[in-house]
Amino acid sequence: MGRKVSIVGIQNSPTKYDLEKNLKDAFGLLDEALGLYKYVDIAVFPEYFSFVPESKDTPIIEEYNEEIKKMLAMRARAYDTYIIGGTVANKQEDGNIYNTSLVFDRNGDIIGSYDKIHLFDVLDAKGEEQESYQITRGDNLLTFDTDFGRVGVMVCYDVRFPEMARTYALKGVEYLMVPAAFFSPRFDHWQDLIKAAALQNGMYVMGVNIFGKVCDTLNMCGRSLIADPWGIPVATAPDKPSFIQAYVDSDYPSQIRDALGTFHNRVPSVYDIK
């Protein structure tokens, strides 16, 4: 038995444009969770936890970013926890906007950021969904080391690409965090993808989703969950704004990987997935 690691996911229900209410509700859930447990090692918000862009015509609201960063940093320091701040719209000097997840350490310092790589550009029943109308894709993975193990980050649609989770596993990631805004008709996909990533790669995977009808056309399924390295859910969220928490064994990922042999029995010479 290794260290008991306490992980928390926040499942809030943001609404279009009402940033003040969204932030009040989201941080209220975080404060409740961080105050309830004796300690929390890492807490994760969902994708677009402060606002949800509805279409290519919805203006990206990114002027609140500095205030959001301050709120996240303050709580990371106050509660001595790592925080992954869901995602925020991150406008760069060249005018490109990225869907960015910021990581804060226990001192409240930003120690890394991840720009969503796989953008949701697909045809759907209503015509099309083109995330790239607003967002520029990232091109780098993010891992960071903590006092309880190595953590990786992906965002929402990224979880549909198994190469990405496997790459993280090969980089030594033991905890994969997935902030998301996953649509309600696909809740079965959402939960199965989280469990599959955990099982296939022998690591903890926490999927943290927003919940409810967040704007006129988007309904999110919630169903946040933590899956252990066997792919078994150890915490699931109810169908309402809430949070999930679990104490997990830091030694379990390495034990599962050793027991199943799915890493040292790999045959990379025959794989061609480019």
TrEMBL record:
Q: Which InterPro entries match?
A: C-N_Hydrolase, C-N_Hydrolase_sf, UPF0012_CS
CN hydrolase domain segment(s): 5-250
Family annotation (Pfam families): CN_hydrolase
TM stretches of this protein: none
Recorded family membership: Belongs to the carbon-nitrogen hydrolase superfamily. NIT1/NIT2 family.
Recorded hits in PANTHER family, A to Z, give: DEAMINATED GLUTATHIONE AMIDASE (PTHR23088:SF27), NITRILASE-RELATED (PTHR23088)
Name by which UniProt lists this protein: CN hydrolase domain-containing protein
